[in-house]
Amino acid sequence: MYLYLMKMPAAYQVYSGGRMVTYEHLREVVFGKSEDEHYPLWKSVIGGMMAGVIGQFLANPTDLVKVQMQMEGKRKLEGKPLRFRGVHHAFAKILAEGGIRGLWAGWVPNIQRAALVNMGDLTTYDTVKHYLVLNTPLEDNIMTHGLSSLCSGLVASILGTPADVIKSRIMNQPRDKQGRGLLYKSSTDCLIQAVQGEGFMSLYKGFLPSWLRMTPWSMVFWLTYEKIREMSGVSPF
């Protein structure tokens, strides 16, 4: 657990840094806001999905190690031998077994999940916040940031849970010497097997803990991010 907690910040630093830089570049430079500072929803959706794809692709190796090390506790409870002695050993073993490509195992469902989660998180926060500022008496302050982050956490959980289930199954499946999965050929194959074998609601296994995790994370992230921008003399998000 200690090793997992030590590894988790690195994964989120790469992921969050990549997605925020990408989204703001797309919003300010590529797409651009209108004269009244309004950012059309369709632009926000595309920007959020692209930001998630780029951020998650960069972070895939650290996320892969995180996911696989999370499974070590389950293996220990089942009396199975542990696969990794630590974070560095996990990286080395994955490289030895699958090469550089092995570090990007499961990257397709990973970026699919990230695209949906960020479409929910970034798009919802950006849209709700500016709607409240432009159409209600609320100002661009901590109250508005908190309400917007609550909405973004809920939408991100609804959109991201199915992709998260598929991503975890693909990342944790056994693989052959060439690094190919033995249970699922692709994320689509995993989706079909899950729905046919367990029903549609199997895609929402773990939704409640996901929502309970995502909402506080979203609130802490956005409140902190907005405060850092304010302290740095940068305009609000």
TrEMBL record:
Top-rank lineage group of the source organism: Eukaryota
Keywords: Membrane, Mitochondrion, Mitochondrion inner membrane, Repeat, Transmembrane, Transmembrane helix, Transport
Keyword Nucleotidyltransferase: no
Ranges that cross the membrane: none
Record InterPro entries: MCP_dom_sf (IPR023395), MCP_transmembrane (IPR018108), Mito_Metabolite_Transporter (IPR050391)
Repeat (Solcar) residue spans along the chain: 39-131, 140-231
Principal location class: mitochondrion
Topology of this chain in the membrane: Multi-pass membrane protein
GO CC term, one of those recorded: mitochondrial inner membrane
Localization per Swiss-Prot or TrEMBL: Mitochondrion inner membrane
Pfam families: Mito_carr
PANTHER family recorded: MITOCHONDRIAL DICARBOXYLATE CARRIER-RELATED (PTHR45618)
Family named by the database record: Belongs to the mitochondrial carrier (TC 2.A.29) family.
Name of the protein in its database record: cDNA FLJ60996, highly similar to Mitochondrial uncoupling protein 4
Lineage: Eukaryota, Metazoa, Chordata, Craniata, Vertebrata
